[in-house]
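Morning, I've got a small favour to ask if you have a moment. I owe you a coffee for this, so here goes:

…
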Amino acid sequence: MSHCECPWIALVLLTTSLASAQIPNRNHLNLAKHLDDAITDVHLTDGTETIGGASIVDAVNLLRSNAAFPVSLEMLEIERPKDFVTLAEALETLHSMLAVAPLADGDKSRLDRYEELVKTDPGSSVLVPRQRTFKLVRERITVRDFLVQVTTFDDEYEWKNYGTDERPQIVIQPRAASRLNWPVAMICNPHPVSIGRVLAGCRGEKCGPFTEALNERNISIQHMYTGPAPPDPIPHGFVDLCDKTLSARDALNRIAAASHTSWTLGGIKGTRFLSFTR
């Protein structure tokens, strides 16, 4: 199947790379627990899916690997084809960069791959979503300053702490308009309620109340496994949703806090994907 036929596949892969990014053998004693704790050896110069630098996705992955609290991401709602990089555009950009200086390892690998791809695919084929890129290298930086810096580099996003100073709960979200501000129906019977019941799928079982509300807004929950033995991406535990003031974001944050996970909302307009990672 060619890239041009299914640009949404690139979105799923991008969401998967972020949602399933796991950092092995993390020493929890060294993880940042507060916003003024420092993280070290920050080296954001190459992107997982971007040309010429890192993206907000890479920044979130790095922070998740260094923080003991949830770091969630609501990605911009994008449209195809205008918000995707084409093969021809990617090749032109990489060749222009190469004419000025040697390419970073990731960009060099992309150039080799794309030059092979163009032999069989048209230059109009789409590759990955268009994202702003940046470079950030610090020996030591506080979590707060890191968040300020990356959301300055990519000012289409803002960060907020929906937790407390003692127990942060960070969400990086679109600065202009979030898709998670809608109210959710409270669940008081039972109270607290199993996260499995809240997020129950609609195939072969009764939809969970939150899942049903997500489906009505074209948001699907994706439980993605990668690698030989990744941590279980399905949230477990019990959560208190007996609160009539909760928004969808509030509900996701409570689920993340109760299950020690972070969430990611990605996808294109009309087809969005929600996933969890530890």
